[in-house]
Amino acid sequence: MAKLISVVVPMFNEEAVLDGFFARIVPVLDGITERFGLNWEIVAVDDGSRDTTADRLKEIAAANPAVTVVLLARNFGKEAAMTAGLEHARGDAVIPIDVDLQDPPEVMDEFVQRWFNGAEMVVGIRLDRSADTPVKRTTSRLFYQLFNLLCRPGIPENAGDFRLMDRVVVDAVLRLRETNRFMKGLFAWVGFKTEYVEFVREKRSAGSSTWSYMRLLRFAIDGITGFSTVPLRMWSWLGFTIAILSFVYGVYFVVKALIIGDPVAGFPTLVAVILFLSGMQMIGLGVMGEYVGRLYMEAKQRPVYIAREVIRSRAETSASSDPDRT
Length: 326
Ligand code: UDP
Ligand code: MG
Fold this sequence. Notes:
Helices cover 51% and strands 17% of the residues. It has 326 residues and is of the alpha/beta class. It is found in: Membrane.
């Protein structure tokens, strides 16, 4: 039986780009599947769009039996939508891709080629990000450096979600049941034989990005706290260092007062030191709060997303990738 590749596409308010996306990706998929003797399916996840995305997807699914549509009950965010897509994908290989055509579908040909040659994961690396603003590029570089300093395993800079994963990788990723899903981190965490393919990130084909800087910052904090406890432990070291330094400083004053007889003055210094230290303590507490809050969210064990409706594709699967097999 021919192998199946699944393309997973999260969408949130994307009516402006949706038709263009299908028009461009379907011929590419047809070409790839013909060249390699495969079948394809597209798993489109509507992440609670408030425009006509969901209706349009239903129409597309009705017309095209190779399209699965998962409609989420509300906007759960891209990471949750992608998880929903991965869970509903039946392929022997799965490729997550953005709907705005910033990830050129033509690159998938190289992905599949590498997969055929034995790679278990083929990661797209954005070579030229001139399509993104300089501020976004700088903050993104800083984030990757910080992440790789604090977290193991690290993630390659400029790797996005656009990649091919063999079924073994997808199954491994789906076994990670955490609510806080920083997908790039999860993909790297599971390991497997990984290769890299460079590509040029294109401009968004239409519409606008829904990621504000506040949202990106939250995403960055999610990523780091999800994979590292260094921010927690850091405070012990800082406290330790300050304690030693202040002890030495105290001894210095005692000696100065006893031997030299210098009356120790310095109300302003005292205020400055107290304020500085209480500030540090509050930051430490805040960091602890971040982790406690996350523990609380994880402890509830809520599902990552809720689907309102699922329309399943009728693409043929190879026996190995059929989730209904017993
Ligand atoms: N997306 C989503 N849920 C959201 C936000 C975005 O599924 O809450 C999807 C969006 O439709 C697109 C992809 O995630 O397919 C990337 O989003 P976007 O282009 O806005 O992000 P950027 O390219 O600026 O990182
Ligand atoms: Mg985009």
